[in-house]
User: Which sequence fits this backbone?
């Protein structure tokens, strides 16, 4: 057990620093897009959706390949290369003077952003079956802590200019690379190394291979639908809060920070108690219901103080992701953990392609005068409906296996 603690700590720190780099730039994106392209806030929101979706397209296409490469050549190598490219990419975006250069930066970032998939596979490598869901929750907590610190710093740096957070993100990515290079050991061994196959190094081939395993396909579909709904937060939060409450980047960063703190508490501690008491299936059911209620509450809110109170509470619904990942990881062979996490990353990326486009378009329609009612929170109503679809999909899942109840 002791020999696992250092690698576990290092990979969690690595992912936390990576999340800090992502969170740093969120508060300044509306102002940056308007700075380089002009236009209204609503038009900036549409461009923000495009940039997010392009990032996700590349991640969707490349994540299974990088996951399969990590099954063949090791987690360490894939992780380090990704971090080095990300550091350089943040520097390019820091000096970007056109929307097209920002677009190119997001394309490169999407290709390089296999960090989370490789991190999940790394945790799966060093965890017993009954430990996986809880440890996947620790990854969520690490990201949550990163998003606490990142947006807070990003909001403060945003007062110095829209470019400052990108230089800070580049520095964090470089620090992340250094940490991994010196202290992160390899976990893929000769016994778990799998031959690289191009036929499985794409989202469709990987999904087809995994779908042949019992119960996998429906759970991946559920994972995807949940991500589409939950991504309403990064997709429209900055635009929603500015339009509804007039918040500046610092206040947006503060709200995201409170959400991150709650995420860390939920996925780093509360999830373990819930899983131990109720098991994976009941945890997923609870999370779906809670999210539906949270989205319904946020849609009409018109008071900034009430929104700040609701923001950390909505993180309770994040128990769904680690519970689902634990169920999936226990059903997949040890030599395909990287492939599984690549598919889940692709599912997340496909959600990132669709969700920001849909959510920002709905935001634009309900704030730009195209609809008979002014409702910046309209995207949250769509997410509420999607949670209903998730409930139907999960209700049709086969009865829990013994592994799903640990």
Assistant:
């Amino acid at each position: 057990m002791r020999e696992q603690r250092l690698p576990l700590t290092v990979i969690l720190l690595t992912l936390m620093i990576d999340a800090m780099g992502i969170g740093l730039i969120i508060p300044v994106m509306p102002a940056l897009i308007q700075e380089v392209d002009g236009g209204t806030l609503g038009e900036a929101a549409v461009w923000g959706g495009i940039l997010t979706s392009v990032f996700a397209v590349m991640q969707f296409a490349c994540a299974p390949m990088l996951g399969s490469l990590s099954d063949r050549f090791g987690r360490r190598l894939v992780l380090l290369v990704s971090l080095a490219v990300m550091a350089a990419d943040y520097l390019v975006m820091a000096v970007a003077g056109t929307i097209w250069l920002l677009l190119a930066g997001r394309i490169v970032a999407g290709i390089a952003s296999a960090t989370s998939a490789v991190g999940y596979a790394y945790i799966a490598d060093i965890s017993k079956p009954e430990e996986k869901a809880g440890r996947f929750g620790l990854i969520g907590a690490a990201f949550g802590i990163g998003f606490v610190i990142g947006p807070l710093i990003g909001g403060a740096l945003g007062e110095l200019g829209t470019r400052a957070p990108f230089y800070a993100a580049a520095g964090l990515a470089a620090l992340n690379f250094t940490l991994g290079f010196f202290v992160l050991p390899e976990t893929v061994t000769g016994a778990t190394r799998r031959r690289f196959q191009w036929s499985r190094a794409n989202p469709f081939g990987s999904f087809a291979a995994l779908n042949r395993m019992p119960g996998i396909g429906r759970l991946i579909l559920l994972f995807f639908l949940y991500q589409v709904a939950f991504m309403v937060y990064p997709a429209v939060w900055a635009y929603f809060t500015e339009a509804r409450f007039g918040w500046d980047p610092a206040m947006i960063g503060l709200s995201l920070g409170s959400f991150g703190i709650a995420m860390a508490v939920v996925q780093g501690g509360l999830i373990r108690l819930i899983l131990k008491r109720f098991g994976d299936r009941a945890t997923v059911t609870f999370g779906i219901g809670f999210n539906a209620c949270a989205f319904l509450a946020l849609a009409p809110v018109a008071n900034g103080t009430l929104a700040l109170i609701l923001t950390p509470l909505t993180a309770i619904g994040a128990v769904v992701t680690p519970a689902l990942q634990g169920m999936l990881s226990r059903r997949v062979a040890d030599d395909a953990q990287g492939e599984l996490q690549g598919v889940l990353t692709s599912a997340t990326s496909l959600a990132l392609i669709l969700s920001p486009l849909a959510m920002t378009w709905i935001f634009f329609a309900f704030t730009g005068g195209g609809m008979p009612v002014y409702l910046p929170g309209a995207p949250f109503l769509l997410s509420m409906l999607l949670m209903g679809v998730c409930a139907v999909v999960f209700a049709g899942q086969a009865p829990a296996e013994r592994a799903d109840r640990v």
